[in-house]
Amino acid sequence: MIEYFIAKRYLKAKHKFNLITIISTLSVGGITIGVAALIIVLSVFNGFGSLVKSILISFDPHLRIVVTGDEANKKINDFYSYLRSNSKVKNYFPYVESKVIAYNKKSYEIINLKGIPAENDAENWGLKEKIISGKYDLSNEGLGKIIIGLPLSLRLSLRVGDTVTITSARNIERMITSLSIPHSQKFIVSGLFETNNRDYDVSYAFSSIEEAKRLLGYGDEISGIEVRLENIEHSEKLKKELTTKFGDDYFSYYTWYDLHKDLYSIMSVERWSAYILLSLIIAVATFNIFASLTMTVLEKKKDIAILRSMGADSNRIRRIFMYEGLMVGIIGTVAGIILGLTVCYLQINYNFYPLDPTKYIINAMPVKVMFTDIIAIGSMSLLLTFLASIYPAKRASKTNIIESIKYE
Description:
This protein is an alpha+beta fold.
Protein backbone atom coordinates (compact mmCIF):
# COMPACT_ATOMS: atom_id res chain seq x y z
CA MET A 1 0.00 0.00 0.00
CA ILE A 2 3.02 2.27 -0.34
CA GLU A 3 1.38 3.73 -3.45
CA TYR A 4 -1.56 4.95 -1.36
CA PHE A 5 0.67 6.82 1.10
CA ILE A 6 2.67 8.45 -1.69
CA ALA A 7 -0.58 9.55 -3.38
CA LYS A 8 -1.81 10.91 -0.05
CA ARG A 9 1.45 12.81 0.42
CA TYR A 10 1.18 14.32 -3.07
CA LEU A 11 -2.37 15.40 -2.34
CA LYS A 12 -1.45 17.02 0.98
CA ALA A 13 1.68 18.60 -0.48
CA LYS A 14 -0.39 20.98 -2.62
CA HIS A 15 -0.06 23.70 0.00
CA LYS A 16 1.07 26.34 -2.43
CA PHE A 17 -1.66 28.44 -3.99
CA ASN A 18 -0.93 27.61 -7.63
CA LEU A 19 -2.92 26.57 -10.67
CA ILE A 20 -2.89 22.87 -9.76
CA THR A 21 -4.25 23.64 -6.28
CA ILE A 22 -7.02 25.79 -7.74
CA ILE A 23 -8.04 23.09 -10.23
CA SER A 24 -8.00 20.37 -7.53
CA THR A 25 -10.14 22.53 -5.24
CA LEU A 26 -12.57 23.17 -8.08
CA SER A 27 -12.69 19.43 -8.71
CA VAL A 28 -13.65 18.65 -5.12
CA GLY A 29 -16.14 21.53 -5.06
CA GLY A 30 -17.71 20.50 -8.36
CA ILE A 31 -18.17 16.90 -7.28
CA THR A 32 -19.56 18.01 -3.90
CA ILE A 33 -22.11 20.34 -5.49
CA GLY A 34 -23.06 17.81 -8.17
CA VAL A 35 -23.58 14.94 -5.72
CA ALA A 36 -25.51 17.15 -3.27
CA ALA A 37 -27.70 18.54 -6.06
CA LEU A 38 -28.49 15.05 -7.33
CA ILE A 39 -29.45 13.78 -3.88
CA ILE A 40 -31.66 16.80 -3.18
CA VAL A 41 -33.40 16.83 -6.57
CA LEU A 42 -34.01 13.07 -6.69
CA SER A 43 -35.28 13.15 -3.10
CA VAL A 44 -37.76 15.88 -4.09
CA PHE A 45 -38.87 13.78 -7.08
CA ASN A 46 -39.27 10.81 -4.72
CA GLY A 47 -41.32 12.96 -2.38
CA PHE A 48 -43.68 14.16 -5.09
CA GLY A 49 -43.89 10.65 -6.55
CA SER A 50 -44.86 9.17 -3.18
CA LEU A 51 -47.41 11.95 -2.65
CA VAL A 52 -49.03 11.38 -6.06
CA LYS A 53 -49.02 7.62 -5.55
CA SER A 54 -50.62 7.88 -2.09
CA ILE A 55 -53.37 10.18 -3.42
CA LEU A 56 -54.16 7.91 -6.35
CA ILE A 57 -53.89 4.63 -4.45
CA SER A 58 -56.28 5.92 -1.77
CA PHE A 59 -59.07 5.53 -4.35
CA ASP A 60 -57.59 3.29 -7.01
CA PRO A 61 -57.43 -0.48 -6.44
CA HIS A 62 -54.15 -2.34 -6.58
CA LEU A 63 -55.62 -4.42 -9.40
CA ARG A 64 -58.78 -3.82 -11.42
CA ILE A 65 -60.46 -6.61 -13.38
CA VAL A 66 -62.81 -5.19 -16.01
CA VAL A 67 -65.53 -7.28 -17.69
CA THR A 68 -65.24 -6.86 -21.47
CA GLY A 69 -67.23 -9.80 -22.89
CA ASP A 70 -70.82 -10.99 -22.68
CA GLU A 71 -69.78 -14.41 -21.34
CA ALA A 72 -67.52 -12.96 -18.67
CA ASN A 73 -70.14 -12.70 -15.93
CA LYS A 74 -70.62 -16.48 -16.08
CA LYS A 75 -67.05 -16.89 -14.82
CA ILE A 76 -67.28 -14.34 -12.01
CA ASN A 77 -67.81 -17.00 -9.35
CA ASP A 78 -64.61 -18.71 -10.47
CA PHE A 79 -62.85 -15.37 -10.05
CA TYR A 80 -64.25 -14.99 -6.54
CA SER A 81 -63.07 -18.47 -5.57
CA TYR A 82 -59.58 -17.89 -6.90
CA LEU A 83 -59.21 -14.48 -5.24
CA ARG A 84 -60.56 -15.83 -1.95
CA SER A 85 -57.93 -18.56 -1.88
CA ASN A 86 -55.00 -16.40 -3.02
CA SER A 87 -52.66 -15.40 -0.19
CA LYS A 88 -51.66 -12.16 -1.96
CA VAL A 89 -55.22 -10.82 -1.88
CA LYS A 90 -56.34 -8.78 1.12
CA ASN A 91 -59.90 -8.18 -0.09
CA TYR A 92 -61.90 -7.68 -3.28
CA PHE A 93 -65.17 -6.02 -4.25
CA PRO A 94 -67.43 -6.14 -7.30
CA TYR A 95 -68.51 -2.80 -8.72
CA VAL A 96 -70.62 -1.29 -11.48
CA GLU A 97 -69.77 1.97 -13.21
CA SER A 98 -71.28 4.04 -16.00
CA LYS A 99 -71.75 7.58 -17.25
CA VAL A 100 -74.84 9.30 -15.89
CA ILE A 101 -76.43 12.73 -15.89
CA ALA A 102 -76.87 14.33 -12.48
CA TYR A 103 -79.18 17.32 -12.28
CA ASN A 104 -80.63 19.53 -9.63
CA LYS A 105 -83.03 22.33 -10.54
CA LYS A 106 -81.45 23.99 -13.58
CA SER A 107 -77.93 22.60 -13.10
CA TYR A 108 -76.70 19.32 -14.55
CA GLU A 109 -73.38 17.50 -14.92
CA ILE A 110 -72.25 14.37 -16.74
CA ILE A 111 -70.45 12.21 -14.19
CA ASN A 112 -69.37 8.64 -13.46
CA LEU A 113 -71.66 6.79 -11.07
CA LYS A 114 -69.84 3.98 -9.29
CA GLY A 115 -71.77 1.39 -7.34
CA ILE A 116 -69.87 -0.29 -4.51
CA PRO A 117 -70.96 -2.75 -1.81
CA ALA A 118 -72.56 -0.75 1.00
CA GLU A 119 -72.02 -3.42 3.63
CA ASN A 120 -68.23 -3.70 3.21
CA ASP A 121 -65.72 -1.78 5.27
CA ALA A 122 -65.67 1.68 3.72
CA GLU A 123 -62.02 2.20 4.55
CA ASN A 124 -61.11 -0.48 2.02
CA TRP A 125 -62.24 1.88 -0.70
CA GLY A 126 -60.48 4.95 0.70
CA LEU A 127 -63.77 6.84 0.63
CA LYS A 128 -64.67 7.04 4.31
CA GLU A 129 -61.53 8.93 5.35
CA LYS A 130 -61.99 11.46 2.54
CA ILE A 131 -65.49 12.56 3.57
CA ILE A 132 -65.43 16.19 4.74
CA SER A 133 -69.16 16.71 5.28
CA GLY A 134 -71.89 14.27 6.21
CA LYS A 135 -71.02 10.60 6.69
CA TYR A 136 -70.37 7.39 4.82
CA ASP A 137 -73.86 6.01 4.30
CA LEU A 138 -75.01 4.11 1.20
CA SER A 139 -78.07 2.52 2.78
CA ASN A 140 -81.54 2.56 1.26
CA GLU A 141 -84.25 4.22 3.32
CA GLY A 142 -86.91 4.77 0.71
CA LEU A 143 -84.42 6.64 -1.45
CA GLY A 144 -80.90 5.50 -2.18
CA LYS A 145 -77.96 7.40 -0.69
CA ILE A 146 -75.15 8.93 -2.75
CA ILE A 147 -71.76 10.44 -1.93
CA ILE A 148 -70.37 13.09 -4.30
CA GLY A 149 -67.26 15.24 -4.59
CA LEU A 150 -67.20 18.72 -3.07
CA PRO A 151 -66.54 20.57 -6.39
CA LEU A 152 -69.41 18.65 -7.99
CA SER A 153 -71.74 19.58 -5.12
CA LEU A 154 -70.88 23.26 -5.64
CA ARG A 155 -71.67 23.01 -9.35
CA LEU A 156 -75.02 21.37 -8.65
CA SER A 157 -75.79 23.55 -5.59
CA LEU A 158 -76.12 20.50 -3.37
CA ARG A 159 -75.60 20.04 0.34
CA VAL A 160 -75.79 17.03 2.63
CA GLY A 161 -79.44 15.98 2.87
CA ASP A 162 -80.44 17.40 -0.52
CA THR A 163 -81.93 15.27 -3.27
CA VAL A 164 -80.31 14.85 -6.67
CA THR A 165 -81.80 13.18 -9.76
CA ILE A 166 -79.66 10.73 -11.72
CA THR A 167 -80.35 9.46 -15.26
CA SER A 168 -78.06 6.99 -16.96
CA ALA A 169 -76.68 7.62 -20.44
CA ARG A 170 -78.11 4.24 -21.47
CA ASN A 171 -81.61 5.48 -20.63
CA ILE A 172 -81.04 8.66 -22.63
CA GLU A 173 -80.13 6.56 -25.68
CA ARG A 174 -83.24 4.42 -25.20
CA MET A 175 -85.41 7.52 -24.95
CA ILE A 176 -84.11 8.84 -28.28
CA THR A 177 -84.55 5.54 -30.15
CA SER A 178 -87.94 4.55 -28.71
CA LEU A 179 -89.39 7.99 -27.93
CA SER A 180 -90.02 6.87 -24.34
CA ILE A 181 -89.61 8.78 -21.10
CA PRO A 182 -86.14 8.14 -19.63
CA HIS A 183 -85.95 6.33 -16.31
CA SER A 184 -84.52 8.52 -13.58
CA GLN A 185 -83.82 7.86 -9.93
CA LYS A 186 -83.57 10.20 -6.97
CA PHE A 187 -80.77 9.95 -4.43
CA ILE A 188 -80.21 11.64 -1.09
CA VAL A 189 -76.75 13.21 -0.70
CA SER A 190 -75.37 11.57 2.47
CA GLY A 191 -71.80 12.85 2.24
CA LEU A 192 -69.31 15.04 0.40
CA PHE A 193 -65.75 13.90 -0.23
CA GLU A 194 -62.54 15.60 -1.34
CA THR A 195 -59.51 13.60 -2.45
CA ASN A 196 -57.22 16.33 -3.86
CA ASN A 197 -57.54 14.44 -7.14
CA ARG A 198 -59.62 16.60 -9.45
CA ASP A 199 -60.54 13.68 -11.71
CA TYR A 200 -62.43 12.07 -8.85
CA ASP A 201 -63.72 15.17 -7.07
CA VAL A 202 -65.34 16.65 -10.18
CA SER A 203 -66.58 13.60 -12.00
CA TYR A 204 -67.34 10.77 -9.56
CA ALA A 205 -70.29 9.87 -7.35
CA PHE A 206 -70.68 6.71 -5.24
CA SER A 207 -73.82 4.75 -4.44
CA SER A 208 -74.58 1.22 -3.28
CA ILE A 209 -74.09 -1.41 -5.97
CA GLU A 210 -77.75 -2.47 -5.71
CA GLU A 211 -79.04 1.06 -6.42
CA ALA A 212 -76.53 1.54 -9.24
CA LYS A 213 -77.56 -1.77 -10.88
CA ARG A 214 -81.22 -0.79 -10.66
CA LEU A 215 -80.60 2.58 -12.29
CA LEU A 216 -78.16 1.36 -14.95
CA GLY A 217 -80.09 -1.80 -15.79
CA TYR A 218 -77.23 -4.20 -15.05
CA GLY A 219 -79.38 -6.94 -13.52
CA ASP A 220 -77.02 -9.57 -12.08
CA GLU A 221 -74.05 -8.37 -14.10
CA ILE A 222 -71.14 -6.27 -12.86
CA SER A 223 -68.59 -3.97 -14.48
CA GLY A 224 -65.66 -5.65 -12.80
CA ILE A 225 -63.81 -6.47 -9.61
CA GLU A 226 -61.41 -4.28 -7.67
CA VAL A 227 -58.70 -6.03 -5.68
CA ARG A 228 -56.58 -4.86 -2.76
CA LEU A 229 -53.39 -6.77 -2.00
CA GLU A 230 -51.35 -7.38 1.12
CA ASN A 231 -48.37 -5.94 -0.77
CA ILE A 232 -48.95 -3.54 -3.65
CA GLU A 233 -45.72 -4.70 -5.32
CA HIS A 234 -47.39 -8.06 -6.06
CA SER A 235 -50.00 -6.49 -8.36
CA GLU A 236 -48.09 -7.21 -11.58
CA LYS A 237 -47.46 -10.80 -10.53
CA LEU A 238 -51.14 -11.38 -9.73
CA LYS A 239 -52.11 -9.79 -13.05
CA LYS A 240 -49.97 -12.36 -14.89
CA GLU A 241 -51.45 -15.20 -12.84
CA LEU A 242 -55.02 -14.15 -13.64
CA THR A 243 -54.22 -13.66 -17.32
CA THR A 244 -52.76 -17.16 -17.48
CA LYS A 245 -55.66 -18.80 -15.62
CA PHE A 246 -58.68 -16.90 -17.03
CA GLY A 247 -57.30 -15.44 -20.27
CA ASP A 248 -57.97 -11.99 -21.66
CA ASP A 249 -60.85 -12.71 -24.06
CA TYR A 250 -63.54 -11.55 -21.66
CA PHE A 251 -61.53 -9.67 -19.06
CA SER A 252 -59.01 -6.83 -18.99
CA TYR A 253 -56.56 -6.42 -16.13
CA TYR A 254 -55.14 -3.12 -14.90
CA THR A 255 -52.65 -2.68 -12.08
CA TRP A 256 -52.43 0.57 -10.10
CA TYR A 257 -49.58 1.54 -12.46
CA ASP A 258 -51.62 0.81 -15.61
CA LEU A 259 -54.49 3.02 -14.43
CA HIS A 260 -52.26 6.11 -14.57
CA LYS A 261 -49.46 4.82 -16.76
CA ASP A 262 -48.95 8.08 -18.67
CA LEU A 263 -48.56 10.08 -15.46
CA TYR A 264 -46.13 7.61 -13.88
CA SER A 265 -44.14 7.40 -17.14
CA ILE A 266 -43.81 11.19 -17.37
CA MET A 267 -42.65 11.34 -13.75
CA SER A 268 -40.08 8.61 -14.44
CA VAL A 269 -38.79 10.42 -17.56
CA GLU A 270 -38.48 13.68 -15.62
CA ARG A 271 -36.59 11.92 -12.84
CA TRP A 272 -34.12 10.30 -15.23
CA SER A 273 -33.70 13.57 -17.15
CA ALA A 274 -32.82 15.38 -13.94
CA TYR A 275 -30.36 12.60 -13.04
CA ILE A 276 -28.61 12.81 -16.41
CA LEU A 277 -28.48 16.62 -16.55
CA LEU A 278 -27.19 17.04 -13.00
CA SER A 279 -24.62 14.30 -13.62
CA LEU A 280 -23.02 16.71 -16.09
CA ILE A 281 -21.93 18.83 -13.11
CA ILE A 282 -19.96 15.85 -11.80
CA ALA A 283 -18.67 15.12 -15.32
CA VAL A 284 -17.28 18.67 -15.60
CA ALA A 285 -15.62 18.26 -12.20
CA THR A 286 -13.97 15.03 -13.35
CA PHE A 287 -12.48 16.91 -16.32
CA ASN A 288 -10.81 19.15 -13.72
CA ILE A 289 -9.43 16.02 -12.05
CA PHE A 290 -8.07 14.95 -15.43
CA ALA A 291 -6.40 18.36 -15.88
CA SER A 292 -4.97 18.59 -12.36
CA LEU A 293 -3.57 15.04 -12.47
CA THR A 294 -2.00 15.65 -15.89
CA MET A 295 -0.29 18.81 -14.56
CA THR A 296 0.79 16.94 -11.41
CA VAL A 297 2.42 14.25 -13.56
CA LEU A 298 4.40 16.95 -15.41
CA GLU A 299 5.37 18.58 -12.10
CA LYS A 300 6.46 15.30 -10.49
CA LYS A 301 8.51 13.95 -13.38
CA LYS A 302 11.68 14.02 -11.30
CA ASP A 303 9.99 12.15 -8.41
CA ILE A 304 8.64 9.57 -10.83
CA ALA A 305 12.06 9.05 -12.38
CA ILE A 306 13.68 8.60 -8.96
CA LEU A 307 11.04 6.05 -7.94
CA ARG A 308 11.55 4.18 -11.20
CA SER A 309 15.33 4.16 -10.71
CA MET A 310 14.81 2.76 -7.19
CA GLY A 311 12.93 -0.21 -8.63
CA ALA A 312 9.30 0.89 -8.75
CA ASP A 313 7.65 -0.64 -11.80
CA SER A 314 5.16 1.11 -14.10
CA ASN A 315 2.17 -0.48 -12.36
CA ARG A 316 3.11 1.08 -9.03
CA ILE A 317 3.57 4.49 -10.61
CA ARG A 318 0.19 4.18 -12.30
CA ARG A 319 -1.50 3.22 -9.02
CA ILE A 320 -0.03 6.26 -7.22
CA PHE A 321 -1.81 8.69 -9.51
CA MET A 322 -4.94 6.57 -9.73
CA TYR A 323 -5.17 6.68 -5.94
CA GLU A 324 -4.64 10.43 -5.95
CA GLY A 325 -7.51 10.94 -8.40
CA LEU A 326 -9.79 8.57 -6.50
CA MET A 327 -9.05 10.34 -3.22
CA VAL A 328 -10.19 13.62 -4.74
CA GLY A 329 -13.34 11.88 -5.95
CA ILE A 330 -13.99 10.21 -2.58
CA ILE A 331 -13.58 13.49 -0.68
CA GLY A 332 -15.97 15.29 -3.04
CA THR A 333 -18.48 12.44 -3.06
CA VAL A 334 -18.59 12.04 0.73
CA ALA A 335 -18.84 15.80 1.22
CA GLY A 336 -21.65 15.97 -1.36
CA ILE A 337 -23.58 13.12 0.29
CA ILE A 338 -23.28 14.77 3.70
CA LEU A 339 -24.38 18.15 2.29
CA GLY A 340 -27.30 16.66 0.35
CA LEU A 341 -28.55 14.58 3.29
CA THR A 342 -28.25 17.60 5.60
CA VAL A 343 -30.44 19.72 3.33
CA CYS A 344 -32.98 16.88 3.03
CA TYR A 345 -33.00 16.41 6.82
CA LEU A 346 -33.65 20.11 7.42
CA GLN A 347 -36.51 20.12 4.89
CA ILE A 348 -38.11 16.97 6.32
CA ASN A 349 -37.95 18.13 9.94
CA TYR A 350 -38.14 21.93 9.71
CA ASN A 351 -39.81 22.65 6.32
CA PHE A 352 -37.50 25.56 5.57
CA TYR A 353 -38.91 25.64 2.01
CA PRO A 354 -42.67 26.03 2.61
CA LEU A 355 -45.48 26.03 0.05
CA ASP A 356 -48.68 28.05 0.12
CA PRO A 357 -51.39 25.61 1.34
CA THR A 358 -54.08 27.76 -0.31
CA LYS A 359 -52.57 26.98 -3.72
CA TYR A 360 -51.13 23.51 -3.12
CA ILE A 361 -52.41 20.43 -1.30
CA ILE A 362 -49.27 20.38 0.88
CA ASN A 363 -47.61 23.03 3.03
CA ALA A 364 -43.97 22.19 2.25
CA MET A 365 -41.80 20.67 -0.45
CA PRO A 366 -42.04 16.88 -0.04
CA VAL A 367 -38.74 15.03 0.34
CA LYS A 368 -38.08 11.31 0.50
CA VAL A 369 -34.49 10.02 0.68
CA MET A 370 -33.90 6.59 -0.83
CA PHE A 371 -30.79 4.56 0.01
CA THR A 372 -30.61 3.20 -3.54
CA ASP A 373 -30.32 6.77 -4.90
CA ILE A 374 -27.35 7.48 -2.64
CA ILE A 375 -25.63 4.28 -3.78
CA ALA A 376 -26.31 5.05 -7.46
CA ILE A 377 -25.09 8.66 -7.18
CA GLY A 378 -21.98 7.75 -5.19
CA SER A 379 -21.08 4.91 -7.55
CA MET A 380 -21.55 7.09 -10.62
CA SER A 381 -19.38 9.84 -9.13
CA LEU A 382 -16.55 7.44 -8.25
CA LEU A 383 -16.79 5.75 -11.66
CA LEU A 384 -16.37 9.08 -13.48
CA THR A 385 -13.44 9.93 -11.20
CA PHE A 386 -11.83 6.58 -11.94
CA LEU A 387 -12.20 7.07 -15.69
CA ALA A 388 -10.74 10.58 -15.48
CA SER A 389 -7.67 9.24 -13.65
CA ILE A 390 -6.77 6.51 -16.14
CA TYR A 391 -4.98 8.59 -18.80
CA PRO A 392 -2.80 10.73 -16.47
CA ALA A 393 -1.83 7.61 -14.49
CA LYS A 394 -0.84 5.76 -17.68
CA ARG A 395 1.15 8.77 -18.83
CA ALA A 396 2.99 8.84 -15.49
CA SER A 397 3.84 5.12 -15.77
CA LYS A 398 5.46 5.72 -19.18
CA THR A 399 7.76 8.51 -17.96
CA ASN A 400 11.27 8.19 -19.40
CA ILE A 401 13.78 8.01 -16.51
CA ILE A 402 16.80 9.41 -18.36
CA GLU A 403 14.92 12.27 -20.01
CA SER A 404 13.32 13.27 -16.69
CA ILE A 405 16.57 13.37 -14.71
CA LYS A 406 18.84 14.78 -17.47
CA TYR A 407 17.74 18.40 -17.11
CA GLU A 408 17.32 18.45 -13.32
